[in-house]
């Protein structure tokens, strides 16, 4: 965090974080987008960008909890798929069903997160394996539920969250509902991470679980909570994606890695101890901006994957390099 | 003095971990026989059928032998599934039905494997990138490149090369004998060469290995090369079996996760330094028996996927649950 | 007189915030045992790590057989014939004795394969130099051997590399009387073979028994050099070099000692047998014993980390049975772990976060991290000020602080919980000498405020100086009790003497 020479700083309550490089990266990418597409400065431009980035940003905010606690959550991508497919099965084209399907989906997210956490804590399976196993299982469940061919569309009441715009807003003309969801969820996750006992303890168990346990931290409870928050973020992202993507069995594919990439871009430390929700949010926007640029350049979809793989490796390599230089 | 320093020496004698793979194998076989008899399908108990069961898991076995090497040095490789797809497609496209191109195609596939393994190894040992992330990133890159070029079955495998998958020597399939030979070779390398001894040292205690003058980085890189070359061979086998390569065959077989699960069931510990190839072979047999049980019992393919995810987690838990270490 | 094999001249080394070594010169000749003595933190280990190439000296030079050498990696010193046997073993528990002995330099056949038969034969030959040879099968897994035998394997490994210089860092820490004797015989054998031995210890008995010459380090400097072994008193004076009465806080007076806070009767688990002890309010009880005697196991049992499975524990008058550290903390027990970095600190978090860790752990997850019923950031800062923790800011990562300041931050963690019983494990390990006195006085202050304190330490002078009463453990039992002022010899004897223990 901060390291001030002024000893009176010790009495100050406020923390002044250094500028995280992710914001510089994001600014540069946005400048590039504006250069290529001046329309981006219009509300339609940036609001649509935020709307597209919303599911990933929410996922990244949840993923940061698990990464900071020392683990990985690779099950969120297939959780998204399950939520989208499951919602279409449950609503069954009935607009009125949305009111109970949405809570059910959030419940599924919480449940999946809790199971991940329980497996890691009590069966002592490393989270990577546990959540990869969960990924396969959930994908299978999505297929099983839909019989392999998901049918129908989600009713408009359900798609409200992902697709609808609130019009006639002063200054910006309109705000997509998904952007409101984004702000609320990221704000809530950021508050929990950086202003509560939970956040401090998530950091502590990721930093040194043995020390945390011997200091009285309820390590399992905190870890399970981190997984639950990640699962919840997956369910929310799924509900948003259901609004603007179609119903298919691969709607969530690849999101887990994008979320990890976003968190790592935001400086979250793999295997725990450091992580920031706002920075992960910045990482998600940066990743979305990169994809937007690739689109402008007319590069085909698979290139996105390659670029993302390179970014993921480069971001971690760079972080390791910086750690070695600062001798920590 | 830490908790660990004060520990009592381990008791010699019966070590559960050493015999667990065999116990599990016997258990899996008993279940298989039980189900076959219970459902009155004794035809599944013939010699030919048992050979056929083995034949179905050859690609998994080859991949898992490679995975054993990286896990022994306390690394991991999650890029094997995409590499299998890539080499299968590459080989099939280079051959394109022409027997004269078989040798160049095999070479091309092996070289691709070696290059990927070299890159993985250098990124892990040189740039100090967490192996999970390094190989997941590599997986994205390979899959992206692959889908940029092909989206369906590509190329054609000449009949002469289909011998690899369909040839027989006496009552035994050629590929099965190949797998056995590969396992013996891997066992000999681990048991009798300095390289093998160094692998155990690096995985067991990297610092001690370095202090003893072992070039630890080189051992990690070489293990990754071996793993990727094995995956390339598995790709060649699958191309031969399917008579053509497709960009989804690796991901469809979940070879990344299953090969890890097979290695772990075989008693090789994820932290490195303990285990071996014969355990991995037992793990492969266990997995193919379980698969056959599903077939006999007529479990639907989606449900099978769900069960697979659960079994993989359960397999790791079987070993992990006895440890007192806190995992994340 | 033979020329020295190793000559170190003017070695200086600083770490952030601490000067570990200042202008230290040191030499050792072939066929002699040079004892390197000093208290914890005097700079012995740093000197050895510079010799072996783990650290680089800021100034000074190392000469091997008269030639200046610069080792940038431990392998280079090993190849040059210097073998260091560290306290933490570098053996692979999952490999056999022979495989460990020849790690990295296995004998090979003509075909380049490992020659297992030759390796075993050579292993037997090397092991035959040691009295323990009969016990050690080269095909046994190292993890199945007891600590003393592992130590023999470690020494045999050094010998088998053909090392001309062998460094032993407190090799008897985990050995009992008979095993010590065996080790001494081994050292004699090495000396006769012309090996130069640097023997690090702070036990007078071993110096008298083994050493040819003695070098005493204190606060990173050479305090004394003896070409013949002097009387133990002379070494102690050079080692401590200050008024002991002032260094340790004064012992508790009889008025200060109150009712028992903790009583244990007939307690045990798989590591501990028939434990009975009392710790009174205002009292510091020292717990001595060799490594593996079960002192940490006892601490972890009291703290609920690896609980007792029989017997009775009374804390402040009520019967308790803690099944987890959380339960123990709720019941009023606090513990400062022995491995500060591995078990005590959350290194990437701030000084204040480390201080507040425990109070936050017992507050609701969803409530503010600034204030809870036991602590708030303002009070924590005051507490940290009061303990004179030196940090640029309490927002600073704790890893940048010196060991002493880190230890105080962990103490601060417990102060807000007001524990009735505090367990300190190796409270001054790796802490510079000046900060040690601060920790001792802090412990005494806590005792005066009514806490009972149990202190585990491998540093006997520390146990004797800081504790009001000393309990000695051996093989999971408490075997002796000494009042304040007992002699080092008596305690060592009680800790290591062979006894018939019913299984």
Automatic annotation (TrEMBL), chain A:
Organism of this sequence: Pseudooceanicola batsensis (strain ATCC BAA-863 / DSM 15984 / KCTC 12145 / HTCC2597) (Oceanicola batsensis)
Subcellular location: Cell membrane
Domain of life: Bacteria
Keywords, sorted A to Z: Cell inner membrane, Cell membrane, Membrane, Transmembrane, Transmembrane helix, Transport
Alphabetical list of Pfam families matching this protein: BPD_transp_2
Membrane topology note: Multi-pass membrane protein
InterPro entries according to UniProt: ABC_transp_permease
GO molecular function: transmembrane transporter activity
Record bears the keyword Membrane: yes
Any one GO CC term of the record: plasma membrane
Transmembrane annotation, as ranges: 22-41, 97-121, 128-149, 169-192, 224-247, 279-297
Coiled coil ranges: none
Name of the molecule in the record: Autoinducer 2 import system permease protein LsrD
Function: Part of the ABC transporter complex LsrABCD involved in autoinducer 2 (AI-2) import. Probably responsible for the translocation of the substrate across the membrane.
Subunit structure: The complex is composed of two ATP-binding proteins (LsrA), two transmembrane proteins (LsrC and LsrD) and a solute-binding protein (LsrB).
Automatic annotation (TrEMBL), chain B:
Transmembrane segments: 19-38, 44-62, 69-95, 101-124, 131-150, 170-190, 219-240, 260-290, 302-321
Keyword Magnesium appears in the UniProt entry: no
Keywords noted in UniProt: Cell membrane, Membrane, Transmembrane, Transmembrane helix
Membrane topology: Multi-pass membrane protein
Record's keyword annotation contains Membrane: yes
GO cellular component: plasma membrane
Locations listed in the record: Cell membrane
Coiled coil: none
PANTHER family named among the record's database cross-references: ABC TRANSPORTER PERMEASE PROTEIN YPHD-RELATED-RELATED (PTHR32196)
UniProt-recorded name of the protein: Inner-membrane translocator
From TrEMBL, chain C:
Cross-referenced PROSITE patterns: ABC_TRANSPORTER_1, ABC_TRANSPORTER_2
Single GO cellular component term: plasma membrane
KW Membrane (keyword) present: yes
Signal peptide region: none
Chief location bin: membrane
InterPro entries on file: AAA+_ATPase, ABC_carbohydrate_import_ATPase, ABC_transporter-like_ATP-bd, ABC_transporter-like_CS, P-loop_NTPase
Intracellular or extracellular location(s): Cell membrane
Limits of the ABC transporter domain: 6-244, 257-500
PANTHER family attached to this UniProt entry: CARBOHYDRATE TRANSPORT ATP-BINDING PROTEIN MG119-RELATED, GALACTOFURANOSE TRANSPORTER ATP-BINDING PROTEIN YTFR
Protein name as it appears in the record: Putative D-ribose ABC transporter ATP-binding protein
